[in-house]
């Protein structure tokens, strides 16, 4: 079994962002998870396209941009232009989800959709064939360092089952409270991509911690 590790820069030292990103890339992380917050959809404000463009000069990782913003269509082209490979929008923030996912693909990126802990996976039934990734939030979005919500596990299992039954190929990503203890649970449930912020950037050696987290996740 293979999984991908997606360090969330929300928990990085922003005064040393280039070095922190280089460390997790050297540690073998496949995706760089970039949390974009607008102070409306979630009660926090973070990163814009300028930061994505600056990091793009320094990294070859897949840039995985998690948009926690209202009306995302307005900013999707800017984030893709800045170097995002994958754009994930929230189901709860999209009035016309099909249109938004189509826009991401038209602009040349992979399309993901995220679900808050209170949102049932069945709300995605009509768009699953067109998405590249489903992000299951295992905390309420807005902040790093929160406790894992175990209710995410049956949702991951149901999505993995649906994917198999329908012959679909989207990745299942889990975001929030993922650490050496919770990682094996989410992988057993069927997750392919693990986002980790505080567990990686809060570790004494973030570069080494990427491999430690991967090893722990695959301990079945
Ligand atoms: O999207 C979010 C939070 O809204 C996440 O990507 C967090 O940044 C994950 O942080 P940890 O829970 O791993 O510390
Ligand atoms: Fe995130």
From TrEMBL:
Keywords for the protein's UniProt record, in alphabetical order: Carbohydrate metabolism, Cobalt, Isomerase, Manganese, Metal-binding, Zinc
EC number(s) stated in the UniProt entry for this protein: 5.1.3.1
GO biological process: pentose catabolic process; pentose-phosphate shunt
Gene3D superfamilies, alphabetized: Aldolase class I (3.20.20.70)
Keyword Zinc part of the UniProt annotation: yes
Entry keyword Metal-binding: yes
Full protein name: Ribulose-phosphate 3-epimerase
Organism annotation: Heliomicrobium undosum
Taxonomic lineage of the native organism: Bacteria, Bacillati, Bacillota, Clostridia, Eubacteriales
């Amino acid at each position: 079994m293979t999984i991908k590790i997606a360090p969330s820069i929300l928990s990085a030292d922003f005064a040393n962002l280039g070095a922190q990103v280089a460390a997790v890339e050297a540690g073998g992380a496949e995706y760089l998870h970039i949390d974009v917050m607008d102070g409306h959809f979630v009660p926090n404000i973070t990163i814009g396209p300028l930061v994505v463009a600056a990091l793009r000069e320094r990294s070859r990782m897949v840039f995985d941009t998690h948009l926690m913003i209202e009306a995302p269509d307005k900013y999707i082209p800017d984030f893709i232009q800045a170097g995002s490979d994958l754009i994930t929008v929230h189901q709860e923030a999209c009035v016309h989800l099909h249109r938004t996912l189509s826009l991401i693909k038209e602009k040349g990126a992979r399309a993901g959709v995220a679900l808050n802990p209170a949102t049932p996976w069945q709300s995605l039934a009509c768009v699953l064939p067109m998405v590249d990734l489903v992000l299951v939030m295992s905390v309420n979005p807005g902040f790093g360092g929160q406790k894992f919500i175990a209710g995410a596990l049956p949702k991951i299992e149901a999505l993995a089952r649906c994917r198999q039954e329908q012959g679909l190929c989207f990745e299942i990503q889990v975001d929030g409270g993922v650490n050496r203890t919770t990682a094996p649970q989410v992988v057993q449930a069927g997750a392919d991509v693990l986002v980790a912020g505080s567990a990686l950037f809060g570790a004494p050696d973030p570069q080494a911690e990427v491999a430690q987290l991967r090893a722990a996740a695959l301990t079945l």
